[in-house]
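User: Some background: our group keeps a shared notebook of sequences we're curious about, and every so often someone picks one and asks for a predicted structure to add to the entry. Today it's my turn. The entry only has the sequence so far, pasted here. Could you supply the structure so I can complete it?
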Amino acid sequence: MERKKELRKWIAQEKTRYSASTLKALSVDILTCLEELDAFQQANTVLLYHSMRDEVDTHGFIEKWKDHKKIILPVVVGDVLELRLYTGSQDLAKGPFGIGEPTGELFTDYPTIDIAIVPGLAFDTDGHRLGRGKGYYDKLLPHIPALKAGICFPFQLIEKIPVEATDINMDIIITSNENELSHSHHSLPSCDRE
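Assistant: Of course. Here's the predicted structure to add to the notebook entry:
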């Protein structure tokens, strides 16, 4: 637990080294890599997240794809995440952490989700994820049999994250300017944008 706390502090400090415009540009690169992924292209129902200011920015991406795919977003209810259908920015309400949360219909058909796009404070190349410490995704993801894709800025990909029995692994990690960040059985599109 102490190591996770140190990692959260280090990642927060690393983020301060980047301007908002740089993080925005990195977000575009990362989401372009996601779009090139076969699993995303073939997906009908996508679990995404409405990003916080320090996460890969998904706001424009959600708008871009909402008319082409069924977009599901999480809503914080107590100590768990509920899923709701995204129907448009006009139907977002500010949640307990200041995140835009959809007010659309409750979504419980977890087996129909084709890909789950998951935020994290850090990931490692074994697919381990470091969250914010509340365990929201670790409670939700065991119910979702879909491919789980973590998306992050390059500095959020670290060598080793300490894991606990309740931590849920990602199947693939997507960041910018990297091309070998997934498990060997999931190939990534080339994300080198230089």
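Suggested note for the entry: The CA atoms of residues 60 and 151 lie 15 Å apart. The two ends are 38 Å apart (CA to CA).
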